[in-house]
Amino acid sequence: MSTPLYRLKAEFFKTLGHPVRIRVLELLSERDHAVSEMLNEVGVEAAHLSQQLAVLRRAGLVTARREGSAVHYSLADPGVAELLRVARTILTGVLAGQAELLADLRSADDGPDDARPGRQDTP
To answer: Ramachandran region of residue 84, left (φ > 0), alpha (ψ -120 to 50) or beta?
Structure first.
């Protein structure tokens, strides 16, 4: 029996569920990078970056090629860059909605005290 598509999607999104992996994918969305270049951009220890790159390789999201002593990584599929762009658009909308809600809450705090629910005047 094959694995249901929703489970495969869940595993895929779990793979994306680490900040270092997202940052690596963002960098590779711009252009191919050598590991040494990514170390400076990501700001983690070499061993940690190597672990995260291995996860992305196993998931088929990135490919590696050796050029001399350097290892260069690239996205395995340009759809990954598009997915990151869509995620940014969705996140921007969510955060904009939260900012509007926060502004509404703050403006409600500026109103008269008797306009607040639960306010009871004492004689």
So the answer is: alpha
Which has the closest alpha carbon to 20: 71, 56, 70, 61? 56
Residue 63 contacts residue 70 (beta carbons within 8 Å): no
Q: Is 59 exposed, middle or buried (0-12, 13-18, 19+ CB in 10 A)?
A: middle
Answering whether pTM is above 0.85, one says no
Angle 88-93-98 from CA coordinates, rounded to 5°: 120
List pLDDT tens digits, range 77-89. Answer: 999 999 999 999 9
| 3-class DSSP assignment, residue 13 | helix
Q: In residues, how long is the chain?
A: 123
